[in-house]
């Protein structure tokens, strides 16, 4: 699922690769691409527009002085917006009444019967409920039979009255039976039509009124894209349902319905169906889905960690020092500490797409900085603050003290000097570049 969208979004972010900072221009370009990707994923155009507007606003308002690259920051902003677009937090079923009543609604073929079985199975196994399935699709004898087959496969009893066409009566009888036999959840499967029609809407609305369900769920085939969203709107206008079940997400590589439905009907997606088997049901978690869409969940956590650890005040101080060419080994050391705080270096590096595989067999570990740290620690405070005084004899002393070779000390000093030069160049009068450079 979402493969196309994932690929497209990844390409959009590439526009920002190599950019030093987020500007009006490069954001606009990226977002144009993001919007196109969303439209191609069959996302409603109004939803796509408000999505990119909101991402733009966040990106422009974001302090540039952060320990991450603009392209990574953009991934994070888009990720959070995607999660928000899909509802933010997961919303569970409220099943408090005894018995709790769940009413299914949706078009024929959307997957109501299958989902009824999946839900019963999940409630039984994961929440130790004692569910009863009820067949209220009275128009097609095959439908009643299908529910019996599904019920049998998950070991949940099915209530049906094959000769009765009055769905309200059947539902009420089932609820009475549930009370008598201590079933605590009643799942009512209903009839759908191939398209929205008045008769079907009336029937389901009447049924809803009669049984007063704890949860009315609208089941819809994700593969129908924009149609799914339109149908959701029609059902919601009439039924004011509580949640959406998106089925056949396994077959939907575009994902437009998942992304648009919440905005259009302002009701949460509660479950997704990802296959024909009874186990193929997932509680819908917007943030996890956003991870999946971007296929870059790792970058998102990298940015989060960096944002948690990064000290803006310290960075500003540092920048001042660099501009005055006062960057010294104390600062260098604290930079190393900051990077180390962000976690295992190999883990961090592996989070960058494309890098993970490349460094699989390379030996980078948290000890990577050990040699450097030892050398700096062997410097006197005076030397750390004034690296320029470190002459040949001091170098020899430092090498000895840190247990390293004189070449290592020389190399570090040379690197330090180069870094200092580049830093100075990059900050020359212009603010907020320091960390981008450090990350370049
Ligand atoms: P109903 O008419 O709304 O009750 O729909 P059904 O439950 O009979 O489902 C219609 C078809 O979709 C059946 O062939 C199901 O096996 C299939 N189906 C239902 N949910 C899913 C799903 O999540 N993934 C896939 N691939 N197929 C599904």
UniProtKB/TrEMBL annotation:
Gene that specifies this protein: ffh
A Pfam family recorded for this sequence: SRP54_N
Record-listed GTP binding positions: 106-113, 189-193, 247-250
Predominant location category: cytoplasm
Subunit: Part of the signal recognition particle protein translocation system, which is composed of SRP and FtsY.
Family to which the UniProt record says this protein belongs: Belongs to the GTP-binding SRP family. SRP54 subfamily.
Described purpose of this protein according to its UniProt entry: Involved in targeting and insertion of nascent membrane proteins into the cytoplasmic membrane. Binds to the hydrophobic signal sequence of the ribosome-nascent chain (RNC) as it emerges from the ribosomes. The SRP-RNC complex is then targeted to the cytoplasmic membrane where it interacts with the SRP receptor FtsY.
Domain topic, free-text comment: Composed of three domains: the N-terminal N domain, which is responsible for interactions with the ribosome, the central G domain, which binds GTP, and the C-terminal M domain, which binds the RNA and the signal sequence of the RNC.
Keyword NADP: no
The keyword Ribonucleoprotein is annotated on this UniProt entry: yes
Domain SRP54-type proteins GTP-binding: 268-281
The enzyme's E.C. designation: 3.6.5.4
Record organism: Xylanibacter brevis
Keyword entries, A-Z: Cytoplasm, GTP-binding, Hydrolase, Nucleotide-binding, Ribonucleoprotein, RNA-binding, Signal recognition particle
Record localization: Cytoplasm
Protein known as: Signal recognition particle protein
